[in-house]
């Protein structure tokens, strides 16, 4: 990659820069501003130092939300990544059936996130939902509205339903790039199914798989709409994840200072993961 | 010679059938419900609507407070797609063709915006757009969604553009094409599929987002997604209409998905597959 050096290229980037500055930098600076000030209303602010950060970092409620968030992301990755690989390995390789599978699998990805919540709400309810009714008929005491464990299970199944296809589609794209000659060579060597997977398919998928892991981690880490619609963070606080807690503080209670400090810490975590993501993406591009 | 893996056998077919069933049954239940009356939904449990009714859809398509939600969503999603792709095109070209001061940092900074939690931005957006008098307008939501869609469009387009050999640019310049003429007449047709894919993903991510669009609107630009949440909390009973509204939000994505099926993975991975 020896691209010519040309600083006039900045002119081409300028529109993006201005637009994103308006929609990202200004709001972010507002957040920074709030995080170090306090107010008694009337738009009178005074310097508050780092108190909000101390309060947020010491808050049991936020620590609990963070704990739930990490647990949630860990469970999501542990289920969706292996399942996605498994589905990708079983997809038809080409032809009409492959296209049909692609389209049907992508369907959940294109549904507005609150509708995803609604779908699982009407699917899981004990009184009107197919799932709720079926489980009740089988003798399970299932009710995601009252029982924290049921609520968790429902949200996890919903997320698996919503996003496993993303992992599968990415792995499928990786598998498509493996030349047939590799499989023929493996057949001549009488390689077992497992060694074909371990020594041919997995290394070829590792790049896309890394992207899949990072994307799923980031997006599950900031999940908001789907659990908000399904459980509203309840029962109690059982499914209150970081974003739900943040929106409650910021817009529900209008606690600007703590919400802003919380936002900045949240954002720094995301920044760190983005950096890993970027390093992976660019390193991969250079090896291609 | 056919590859051995073209014949995956019944095991694979079974796995795929089960997985697709898992994906489709919840959607089926929503569709099923949207054709039932409320009395049938709550009183009579059945796998098919016994008294097929289109009343739920009629309610939505004749009541302005419902169908305007779709119109509003369409307006800001359309605006956002046009803005995002228009500003991303030259930027993506710059990133794919040149080195310049701070290019890597800039590219990374764009990515961080795609990864930023909307919850962090909800409150400051609300205040920013209220301050400049854009609260509850379509353009406010369109601009807010640029936060994640512009980086996405830049990344996807850069991925497609880097697949076009640079010799084409150089030949065109030698032949006396100006940059604008080259870009519009030669380069854009070459990456037409990339532009289509970028537009599709901008459309989609703007369409599925709820948190920001709900925060930035109250009446005039209220998106369909927010209209739906209001109905749930207010009456809590109108399941039929809710289901019908949900089905109608799935349709736009389902209509165009066939055309981008081979690029879905690329789009979700920000142009990096």
Automatic annotation (TrEMBL), chain A:
Membrane-spanning residues: 12-36, 70-89, 95-116, 151-175, 196-218, 259-280
Residues covered by the ABC transmembrane type-1 domain: 66-277
Keyword tags: Membrane, Transmembrane, Transmembrane helix, Transport
Any single Gene Ontology cellular-component annotation: plasma membrane
A GO BP annotation: transmembrane transport
SUPFAM superfamilies membership: MetI-like (SSF161098)
Subcellular location(s) of the protein: Cell membrane
Membrane topology: Multi-pass membrane protein
Family the UniProt entry places it in: Belongs to the binding-protein-dependent transport system permease family.
Protein name: ABC transporter permease
Lineage: Bacteria, Pseudomonadati, Pseudomonadota, Alphaproteobacteria, Rhodobacterales
Automatic annotation (TrEMBL), chain B:
Record keywords: Cell membrane, Membrane, Transmembrane, Transmembrane helix, Transport
Membrane topology designation: Multi-pass membrane protein
Entry's Gene Ontology BP terms: transmembrane transport
Localization (cell): Cell membrane
Transmembrane segments: 12-31, 74-95, 107-126, 138-161, 182-208, 239-260
InterPro entries for this protein: BP-dep_ABC_trans_perm (IPR050901), MetI-like (IPR000515), MetI-like_sf (IPR035906)
Presence of the UniProt keyword Transmembrane helix in the record: yes
SUPFAM superfamilies on file: MetI-like
Keyword Cell membrane: yes
Pfam families xrefs: BPD_transp_1 (PF00528)
Domain ABC transmembrane type-1: 70-260
One Gene Ontology term, aspect cellular component: plasma membrane
PANTHER family: ABC TRANSPORTER PERMEASE PROTEIN, MALTOSE TRANSPORT SYSTEM PERMEASE-RELATED
Family of this protein: Belongs to the binding-protein-dependent transport system permease family.
Protein name: Sugar ABC transporter permease
Protein species of origin: Paracoccus sphaerophysae
């Amino acid at each position: 990659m020896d691209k010519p050096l040309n600083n006039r290229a900045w002119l081409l980037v300028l529109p993006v820069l201005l637009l994103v500055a308006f929609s990202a930098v200004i709001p972010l600076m507002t957040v920074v501003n709030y995080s170090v000030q306090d107010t008694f209303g009337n738009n009178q602010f005074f310097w508050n130092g780092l108190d909000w950060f101390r309060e947020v970092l010491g808050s049991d409620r936020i620590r609990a939300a963070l704990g739930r968030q990490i647990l949630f992301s860990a469970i999501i990755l542990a289920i969706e990544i292996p399942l996605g690989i498994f589905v990708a390995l079983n997809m038809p390789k080409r032809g009409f059936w492959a296209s049909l599978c692609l389209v049907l699998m992508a369907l959940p990805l294109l549904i507005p996130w609150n509708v995803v919540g609604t779908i699982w709400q009407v699917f899981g309810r004990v009184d009107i939902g197919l799932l709720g009714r079926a489980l009740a008929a089988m003798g399970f005491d299932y009710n995601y509205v009252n029982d924290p464990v049921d609520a968790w299970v429902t949200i996890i199944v919903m997320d698996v339903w919503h996003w496993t296809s993303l992992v599968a589609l990415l792995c499928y794209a990786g598998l498509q790039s493996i030349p047939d000659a590799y499989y023929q060579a493996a057949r001549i060597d009488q390689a077992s199914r497992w060694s074909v997977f371990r020594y041919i398919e997995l290394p070829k998928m590792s790049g896309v798989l890394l992207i899949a892991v990072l994307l799923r981690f980031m997006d599950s880490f900031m999940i908001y709409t789907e659990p908000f619609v399904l459980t509203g963070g309840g029962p109690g606080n059982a499914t209150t994840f970081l974003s739900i807690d943040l929106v409650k503080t910021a817009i529900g209670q209008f606690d600007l200072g703590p919400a802003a400090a919380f936002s900045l810490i949240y954002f720094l975590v995301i920044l760190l993961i983005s950096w890993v993501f970027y390093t992976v993406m660019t390193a991969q591009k250079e090896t291609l | 010679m056919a590859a051995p893996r073209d014949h995956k056998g019944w095991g694979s077919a079974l796995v795929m059938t089960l997985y697709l069933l898992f994906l489709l049954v919840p959607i089926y239940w929503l569709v099923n419900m949207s054709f039932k009356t409320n009395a049938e939904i709550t009183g009579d449990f059945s796998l098919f609507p016994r008294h097929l009714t289109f009343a739920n859809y009629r309610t939505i398509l004749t009541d302005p407070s419902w169908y305007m939600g779709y119109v509003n969503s369409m307006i800001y999603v359309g605006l956002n797609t046009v803005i995002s792709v228009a500003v991303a095109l030259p930027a993506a070209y710059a990133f794919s063709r040149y080195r310049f001061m701070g290019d890597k940092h800039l590219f990374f900074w764009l990515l961080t915006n795609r990864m930023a939690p909307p919850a962090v931005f909800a409150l400051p957006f609300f205040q920013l757009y209220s301050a400049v008098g854009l609260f509850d307008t379509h353009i406010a939501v369109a601009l807010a969604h640029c936060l994640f869609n512009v980086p996405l469009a830049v990344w996807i387009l850069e991925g497609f553009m880097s697949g076009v050999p640079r010799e084409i640019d150089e030949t065109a310049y030698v032949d006396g094409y100006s940059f604008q003429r080259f870009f519009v007449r030669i380069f854009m047709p070459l990456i037409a599929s990339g532009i289509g894919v970028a537009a599709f993903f901008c459309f989609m991510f703007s369409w599925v987002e709820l948190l920001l669009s709900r925060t930035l609107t109250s009446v005039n630009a209220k998106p369909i997604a927010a209209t739906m949440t209001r109905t749930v909390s207010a009456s809590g009973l109108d399941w039929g209409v809710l289901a019908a509204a949900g089905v109608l939000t799935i349709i736009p994505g389902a209509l165009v998905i066939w055309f981008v099926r081979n690029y879905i993975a690329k789009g979700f991975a920000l142009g990096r597959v």
